[in-house]
C-alpha cells in the first residue's frame, strides 16, 4: 500500500486520539487506585505532546495548537481542582461536563451574534 492510499484511509488526528485514550486506559488498569500527582502529570503531558505533535505534523497552525493546549491545560486544572474539592469522581465529571456545556453554548451564541445570524428582538 502506498503512503498516499494509507494517508487517505487513516486520519492521524483520530489515531493520536486513540493512542491517548488507550494510554489513559492502560494507566487506569496499571494503577487501579488512581495515579499519584507526578504520574498523572506525566500522563497528561505525554498525551498533550502526542496530540499537539500530531496536529503540527498535519499542517495545523501554531495558533490553533496553542489554543488546543490552553484549553486542554485549563480542563486538566479544573478537573484537578474539582477532584480535590468534591468527594466523588462522578460528581467531578458531572460538574466538568456542565461547565464545558455552558462554555460551548456561550461560544456558540457569541459566534451567532458575531456573524450577524441573530436578529434583534425589537425589530419584529
Automatic annotation (TrEMBL):
InterPro entries (UniProt xref): DUF8163
One Pfam family this sequence matches: DUF8163
Boundaries of each DUF8163 domain copy? 14-120
Keyword annotations for this protein, in alphabetical order, are: Membrane, Transmembrane, Transmembrane helix
User: Which domain of life, per UniProt?
Assistant: Archaea
Q: What transmembrane ranges does the database entry give? A: 12-31, 37-58, 65-83, 89-107
Kindly provide the name given to this protein in its UniProt entry.
DUF8163 domain-containing protein
Q: What is the lineage of its organism?
A: Archaea, Methanobacteriati, Methanobacteriota, Stenosarchaea group, Halobacteria
